[in-house]
Amino acid sequence: MLIVPALDLRGGRVVRLLRGDFQRETAYPDDPLALARRYVDAGARRLHVVDLDAARGHGDNRRLVERLVAETAVEVQVAGGVRSERDAARWFGSGAAAVVMGTTAVRRPELLAEVAERHTGKVLAALDVRAGRPAVTGWSTLASTGATDTLRRWEPAPLAGVILTSVDRDGTLSGPDLTLLGEALAATRHPVTYSGGVRSLEDLHALATTGAAAVILGRSLLEGRIPLESVLAP
User: Fold this and answer.
1) Strands 46-51 and 21-28
2) Would you say residue 233 has pLDDT above 80?
3) Residue 32, number of CB atoms within 10 A of its CB
4) Which CATH architecture has domain 2-232?
5) How far is Cα 161 from Cα 154, in angstroms, rounded to an integer?
């Protein structure tokens, strides 16, 4: 199971949101580039970089993300504000290894499939689940479809994988939602990356037994609750 450190960016800073709530934000003093280098030095093979401003449509951190992609010697998957083939192509032109489509993937699965077909193996779909339903537009709105129904609509697309986030647990350090993960794994053929609530090595061991392809870690790494070297070493 691949361990993928997350850098969530808002206003040029590294932040974490509690359950996707922009009013419950914790900002960290780490310089984003320096933090990325720390993760790489510890053994990370891929980084998950989220532009929270772009996700909400209120500005962006594009120049900073471009520097992270250019100056980090590992694969970077970019999330936040990727709404079209043009957006995806622009990120690939900047050197991103993959892009993540969230709101557009939920609302327009046909467009997700089109972008994935043009960039086979480089497009991930984000399923951010709150109260059993996909949360879209910067987690501010719940979609009308259920989580598993959304996964089934994505099945025909040649995706690199699905990123499943339990918004209810994201940033809480309350443990992963293994039930939600199990339902997702049963509903899709695509590799599933899990995110949300992971707090300990024991949680990582539990996730590894489910068959998840990868796990994204945010707060647990930022606050040193999971030792970097023990999980990221090659």
Assistant:
1) unpaired
2) no
3) 20
4) Alpha-Beta Barrel (3.20)
5) 10
pLDDT tens column, 64-120: 999 999 999 899 999 999 999 999 999 999 999 999 999 999 999 999 999 999 999
Question: Hey, CA dihedral for 185, 187, 191, 194, is it positive or negative?
Answer: negative
Out of 51, 53, 128, 177, the active site residue is: 128
Q: Nearest-CA neighbor of 99 among 133, 118, 74, 125?
A: 125
CB crowding 190-224: b at 16 or more within 10 Å, else e: bbbbbbbbbbeeebbebbeeeebebbbbbbbbbee
Decide if 149 is catalytic: no
- pTM, to two decimals: 0.95
| Annotation marks residue 21 as catalytic | no
- Per domain, the residue ranges of the chain are 2-232
